[in-house]
Amino acid sequence: MPYVIADDLPDAPAGQRFRALLERPGILRLPGAHLGIAALLAKKAGFEALYMSGAAMSATMGLPDLGMITVDDVAWHIRQVARASALPVLVDGDTGYGEALNVMHMVRAFEEAGAGAVHLEDQLLPKKCGHLNDKKLADARDMAAKVAAARKARRHLYLIARTDAAASEGIDGAVARARLYLEAGADAIFPEALTNAEMFREFAARMPGVKLLANMTEFGRTPFFTAEEFEAMGYGMVIWPVSHLRVAAKSMEELYAAIARDGGTHKQVDRMQTRAELYQTIDYSAYEALDSTLVATRVPEAMPQR
What we know:
Layout: H1 14-23, E1 28-31, H2 36-44, E2 50-52, H3 54-60, H4 71-85, E3 89-92, H5 100-113, E4 117-121, H6 140-153, E5 158-163, H7 166-184, E6 188-191, H8 197-205, E7 211-215, H9 227-232, E8 237-240, H10 243-262, H11 275-281, H12 284-289
Parallel strand pairs: 1-8, 2-3, 3-4, 4-5, 5-6, 6-7, 7-8
């Protein structure tokens, strides 16, 4: 039955369900899914938790990932993903949208929208993607204050502190910051933009017993590693933050080029999800069944011939 209306919503808060997944053996795999349709497709593939990237949300809005989107923008995306999939979601909280009070507002807003976890980063605005150059780091004590504020505001939200310090302060600096953030109340640590397996292993070795998040983004500073390889290096979570958007955007680009070139979509139909497949994905018939006044839809089996 569809989660949006029916009475089969999860009983436990999303934060508790996210934490329970992390307590199981093995690495938690979190594919990017910042739209309801993406969340449904990821769930269909068997994933039990999802990731929502600030870069993906920004790009969907036609904006760069420079900290320009708002708490309300992100909460709108969280609500549709949580409603569509009922899965616990880890959300990119950027720099917290301000200082301590802003961070507390963000935590409450995200939790109320249905998020299971959030990560905060120790950059200054305008922030950058963690795999770009010349990132400006916040003072570690200021970041720790944000973490403490988030901890105070949360009810069940799982709190991950991200540090971008490895690029400018090396592993020593990143480890020192991570320990400070843990003392401030973080549940886990996200060391961003590590550039080789040795760095991943060293960071994990110096954070014994700490849950760590790895970022497997394409076209960045991190080589390709599989989830199993990250797990072997000591990581408990891995995200593929923008992969779904990259694939979708490339397909849209090719579609529009084909319409301009061919005068229509007739050469692209074999690349499309059919109407029947889409309706199955969004559980169209189950929604109809909730309202006895609706006549069951019969999906056309094929396009008519000319």
